[in-house]
Amino acid sequence: MSVRSAKDAIREARSAAGLTQEQMSEGICTIQALSRIETGAAGVSPATFQALMERAGAPCERYPIFASRSDFDCFYALKLARFHLDAWQLAPAWEELEKLETYGWADNKLYYQEWLLLHGRLQFLSYQCDHARNYHVLLNALHISRPDIDLFDFRALLLSQNEIQILTALAQEALYLGQRDTCLAIHTQIEAYLADSKFSSLEKERMQAEDAVVYAKYLLGTGDCLSAVETTDRYRSATALYWNLSLLLELTFLMGLGLHHLGDTPKAAEHIKNVFYTAHAVKSNYANVCREHLSRHTDFPVSDYMRQMPEIDSKTYPVKEIMDTGHFSNGIFNADSPDIYTLGMLLHDLRTEQNLSMDIVCHGLCGKSKLSKIENGSLQPDIALTEALLQRLGISERIFTFWGNERESRLNDLKFQLIHIQNLSSKMQENYFQEMERLVDEKDVLYYQDFLVVKALKNRSPSHRISGLKKALHYTLPDFDIHEIMTCRLSWEELSILNCLADAYRKTDDSYLCSLYYHQITAYIAKVCPSIMLQAQVYPHTLKAYCHTLYIQRQYNAVLELQKQFCKAFNLMCYNIDTYGSYLFYYCQALGECMQFDAATLYAVYCCRAKGLMNQDSSAAILKRAFEANFNILLED
């Protein structure tokens, strides 16, 4: 199925929700503008499209059409800013938010609204903000789309995700300002609203976790520590699964505080130390915040080792002045405008900017003539092809919210579930696999490739796994040669297959191919330099597995050299704490084998605490035993 037109998607969503044009457009655009969108007379920016679809309670899937190149640049910068904030990486988030100001927010009030929301979040995460000022900024952001909202009675409104997140941030700032009644009123309404909402499970769980952070703080402030522990525990597993480090750190620390106040200090210490050392490992200022709070406001026994850890550099970010958005657009544009920036134009610009031929980009995915038609706008690609083309051009498809049919949505959901297979029972794994097998067709090359990868990874035999993975790879790269990787452009799926092949080769007589594959993948990413979001989906797994391979080959100095050689790439580990913990498991032992015991101990503590944060205590126990047996070091913190 191809990417759908906005007019059809919006009209059908409104009809299905039983909304009038007045109800759907309120606070977003005029009734007349919505009417023009639904008839195809006007185009709509992705930010406005998403707000309208959320208003109708419809799941948004894929809609990459923009009013201009500036529109796309703003859209992209906002996605990257969120990506950095989710990993508590404030400096790169600030850089992306600065770009939007340079772009003039594409004169779009909804981009400006989200920009204010993210600025407010950045200010809060810096823990150096003026809460009254931040409250004022967030309230102004909310008034862009809801000028007459009553914070004590908005339960009857239809809210967008940005509006819900702004309200949650306002509740948090109200709490810090001593306005507990306002905080509780907002939380109570948000909690009820999300429970009955039609957002996707991932979107809903994220917003519920954000609300849980605020409510847990409220509960701790009122002395209801048991409810605070129950609230945080309810959402910790979901945030660990979706790798939202920012939320996971906050929820876990609040849970630890609650347990400490309840008198269960040993269990509290596990959670609190997991947070402190993991935050320190990724150089997050939250490590400073946690230690200071423990010392000033609790009688928690902060260990000497924790006290001796150096401060993480923190920074104060300038507060922005509020602008009048009266002259901004609402994201509606003339459908005949010469500035409209389509998916095809984006693909063409990315390809030409990288000086790539059509043959390299479309090889194994589609014909050259089809890519040409996509680029000139005479053909809309289907969703799977859209993803693969964007990935080969170095852009993560995760920046887009696409609109697909029920089958495609289910296939994407099954793929996600099967990727996180460790969280599924054997029976559930088999049920999902069988459902996926029923839904795919060999003619759907990319979906079938996904299926073949899942099928291959089910096989425990390394040789059979390799055979299955090669079959999957050859669906899109029929003549692939690992030695010629630099002549290719690879999708996320293709890079993931290569990672899996390397891992499988390690357990065969051709184990030398394992290092070869990892070396080639790292060289490819260093040369092509995809976007940070795409790199974070692949590179941490490559570096972790490469480190593991060198370690079991007893090439301990090579493990340390790997860290030096790809020091910038290792910053990506901050965006995937689960993989970072696995990498540290081998890195710290290599340090020990090279007699660097102080560093080995530090990184071992980081590893144990990151694993503990991700509910993987067995790995931490194994590492502690190894350090005692091999280096006579007891890992205490």
Strand order of the largest sheet: 1-2
Taken from the alpha-carbon principal axes, the silhouette is globular
Q: Any idea of the CATH class of the domain at 200-314? A: Mainly Alpha
CATH topology of the domain at 200-314: Serine Threonine Protein Phosphatase 5, Tetratricopeptide repeat
How would you state the average pLDDT, rounded? 88
Taking the alpha carbons of the first and last residues, their distance comes to 55 Å
Determine the strand fraction and express it as a percent band.
Answer: under 5%
Work out the radius of gyration.
Answer: 25 Å
Poorly predicted residue ranges: none
Helix content: 55-70%
> Can you name the CATH architecture of the domain at 200-314?
Alpha Horseshoe
Sheet bearing the most strands, described?
A: 2 strands, antiparallel
Alpha-beta classification: mainly alpha
Q: Please provide the count of β strands.
A: 2
Q: How many separate helices?
A: 31
Report on the architecture of this protein:
The protein is mainly α and about 625 residues long. Among the domains are: about 5-65 and about 335-360 and about 375-400, 434 Repressor (Amino-terminal Domain) (Orthogonal Bundle); about 200-315, Alpha Horseshoe (Serine Threonine Protein Phosphatase 5, Tetratricopeptide repeat), CATH 1.25.40. It is built from 31 helices and two strands. A two-stranded antiparallel ribbon has the order 1-2. α5 packs parallel to α7, α13 packs antiparallel against α14 (about 265-280) and α30 (about 595-615) packs antiparallel against α31 (about 615-630). It is globular. The protein starts with 5 loop residues before the first helix and ends in a 6-residue tail after the last helix. The mean pLDDT is about 90.
